[in-house]
Amino acid sequence: MATAAKPYYRVWGLLFVGWFISYFDRTITGPIVTWMIENDVAFLASVDNPYALGGLLGSLFFVGYMLTQFPGGYFGDKFGYRNMILISVFWAGVTTLLTGLFNGLFLFIALRVLTGLGEGILYSNDRSFIAQVTPPKKMGLGMGIVISGLSVGLTAGLLVTPYMIEMSRGFLGNDAWKAPFFILGTLTILIGFILKKYLIKTEERGPSDVKMALLNIGRYSLFFLAIILGVYYLADFFSLGEVNIAIIFTLFAFVFIAYIYKTKKEVAPVLRNRNLILLYLSAIPILWHLWFYGFWSVSIVKEFGGGGFLAAALIASFNAVAGLIGFPLGGAISDRVAHKENGRKNVLVWLSVGLTISVFVFAFYMVSGKNNPVIMSTILFVSGLLFFAVQAVQHAMVTELATEKQRGSAFGMWNLIAEIGALLSPVISGVLRDSTGGWGAPLFLDAILLGISCLLIVFIGQTRSVSLKHSIQKPI
């Protein structure tokens, strides 16, 4: 009875699970790379710059993830958000499982890029599906609750991955790093079947829509995969270095944005809206911070005296677990002031300022040589609380600033541009670690970039909540 009256509750719960498994999957690479470096195994066993190469592995995942943000949202607007969500989950499950079956650096890169291409479809369609079924007064709360699954997945990735590796050493030996891929791939596929069965349909969509959606996004993905692997091969052949490879892909992202602007006239308004553009740009440091911590936090805490591999993972997880409170809290606070002029914007400004201060505090504490695990965990938790609240408000503001018919495209563009931060963060931070011999410089760079994000948000013009007509078709 309750489900029939409020079907958006079911959508929230199922998409929460979707975000959980998606972030669990993408987070495992960081702890796996850290374990490989510490144990001199696989393709990181004999390289001179292990943190730079390890960071590049993470960055290449986000190249793929970034490039399907807009196509995913665009095709979701055409073929159905639910269809694109299901394609994303099954795709990620299969490619993650395959990653554990093969050896070699090039195949590892190819499969992680493919995983990123599939997972990149989720964000814009998830956000649009929530907006489609949720009452406007609960929009921020709904988006916050759903994406807090990200926090659970991020926490699990940081905390559980080391245990999966250590428990597998007895029978996999130096190949124990493969165990998380086997486990996560299988689990993701199972969750895909659960979503397929229970995620409500909000519109008439048949098998032909699923087929067309898969063909279209598959065509884009194969094209992007060929470009990414080709650029990587040539850059490696000419010894261009990890940072230069990341810069090349960043430039490619801007070329892709220009292509969208020139060829997709129906969605050009999402690139002409000054407020949306400032919001997109302010999100680049947000994703930089997310994947600086998400990829390297275990290594950072361990280096500054956070104990062994497992103990460091436990301390680092306090930042991620804060999202369980931060996401819904940020969304709920912004909902309460959404009716006021600049309501959400003002909340976003103050949360961003608090986040920047907390990151500077953490950086100063770590480089001071102090390493009390309780203090480290507390600072990370408070910082995470503010960080995840910021993301919930950012997502609600996209809904507020974009028209209903262009939400998928606007969310796709937000994440496409924001993912430039995720692309650059792991590799540049890794290179700084190799060149300076410590994590101090990357920590302060992270804090400075968040300060720039604050300034960009301040320059967003007047905003106010829009009155959206809300309707949910009967589940079929």
Textual characterization of the structure:
- By secondary structure, the chain is mainly alpha-helical.
- The chain has helices spanning 2-5, 7-27, 29-39, 50-67, 69-79, 81-99, 105-119, 122-133, 139-172, 179-198, 207-237, 242-263, 274-303, 309-321, 323-336, 343-367, 373-401, 407-436, 440-458.
- α2 (7-27) runs parallel beside α9 (139-172), α4 (50-67) packs parallel to α12 and α12 runs antiparallel to α18.
Annotate the secondary structure layout:
Blueprint: H1 2-5, H2 7-27, H3 29-39, H4 50-67, H5 69-79, H6 81-99, H7 105-119, H8 122-133, H9 139-172, H10 179-198, H11 207-237, H12 242-263, H13 274-303, H14 309-321, H15 323-336, H16 343-367, H17 373-401, H18 407-436, H19 440-458
Order of helices and strands: HHHHHHHHHHHHHHHHHHH
Unreliable residue stretches: 1-5, 466-476
**Radius of gyration over alpha carbons?**
21 Å
- How large is the share of residues in beta strands? under 5%
Structural class, from secondary structure content? mainly alpha
Average pLDDT taken over every residue: 88
- The global form is globular
Count of alpha/pi helices: 19
